[in-house]
Write a structure and sequence with these properties.
By secondary structure, the chain is an alpha/beta fold. The protein has one domain (3-248): Rossmann fold. The protein has 7 helices and 12 strands. Strands 6-9-10-3-11-12 form a 6-stranded mixed β-sheet, sandwiched between helices. Helix 3 runs parallel beside helix 5 (151-165), helix 4 crosses helix 5 and helix 5 (151-165) runs parallel beside helix 6 (181-198). The structure holds adenosine-5'-diphosphate and magnesium ion (2 copies). It comes from Pseudoclavibacter caeni. Belongs to the ABC transporter superfamily. Ycf16 family. It holds the Pfam family ABC_tran. One of its GO terms (molecular function) is ATP binding.
Length: 256
């Protein structure tokens, strides 16, 4: 078993005016492999900031706290070292990489994570097997990463990476956004299958509850204004489905 432990994490961003704006104000979270945690919360509450901070995006300023994987501090390490340690982030808005095919991208990522290139024939069999499960055609391998991908294609591509890279912990940031019902089901089934096979610890970030009908969290954490406002089990997600986030928000405060 592995453990990802986030303690008293405070994170700021630099605004366009060059000022530091505090976003996360003391997040505590412990997640073990084989567990599913849902991070929920209103728009702008800091969910993506949490995801990027854990993964090591250089644009976020860590003010305080720690993020440890099996006791080892990650916050002083760059994103690629964290990925090799077993972290994976599926971004809310995956970036286009013009001129790089999916095929090359996946193989380069696998080589970087494992420290050696996979054997070509085994690798292709593995990639194509995974793509078939995700209902992707082989043509996909020759397309440029995320260029003109539909919402469903972007999310399938993220789950494909998760299956091939086999992280200990995967952070899925709004993997449900932009998916229709059928794509949501296929992507969710892919996440469940990969997670079970590899005992992945999942941090499933979502604003809406609908993905939680397919991927069942044992723990639900609600983040509001950069703090964990409430925690519970699956029943908390059901309550949020009925009530929304109103009770967490000040009715007189601007939302954006
Ligand atoms: P969520 O994912 O929960 O919707 P985010 O983590 O994306 O929230 O954003 C949290 C808050 O930080 C939002 O209010 C957002 O506008 C603000 N924010 C993020 N990046 C910047 C930035 N570079 N400059 C100013 N505000 C930012
Ligand atoms: Mg948002
Ligand atoms: Mg977000």
């Amino acid at each position: 078993m592995s453990t990802l432990e986030i303690r008293d994490l405070h994170v700021s961003v630099e605004t366009d005016q060059g000022e530091e704006k505090p976003i996360l104000r003391g997040i505590d979270l412990t997640i073990n492999t084989d567990e599913i945690h849902a991070i929920m919360g209103p728009n702008g509450s800091g969910k993506s900031t949490l995801a990027y901070s854990i993964a090591g995006h250089p644009g976020y300023i860590i003010k305080q706290g720690s993020v440890k994987l099996d006791g080892e501090e990650l916050l002083d390490k760059p994103a690629d070292v964290r990925a090799r340690a077993g972290l994976f982030l599926a971004m809310q808005y995956p970036v286009e990489i013009p001129g790089v095919t999916v095929s090359n991208f996946l193989r380069t990522a696998k080589t970087a994570i494992d420290g050696k290139a996979p054997r070509l024939r085994d690798w292709l069999r593995e990639v194509k097997g995974s793509m078939k499960e995700l209902r992707m055609s082989d043509d996909f391998l020759e397309r440029n990463v995320n260029e003109n991908f539909s919402g469903g294609e972007k999310k399938r591509h993220e789950i494909l990476q998760m299956e091939l890279l086999k992280p200990k912990f995967a952070i899925l940031d709004e993997t449900d956004s932009g998916l229709d019902v059928d794509a949501l089901r296929i992507v969710s089934e892919g996440v469940n299958r990969v997670r079970e096979a590899n005992h992945t610890g999942l941090l499933l970030i979502t604003h809406y509850t609908r993905i939680l009908r397919y991927i069942k969290p044992q723990f639900v954490h609600v983040i509001v204004k950069g703090r964990v406002a409430e925690e519970g089990g699956p029943e908390l997600a059901v309550r949020l489905e009925d009530e929304g986030y109103d009770r967490f928000l000040d009715p007189n405060e601007a939302l954006v």
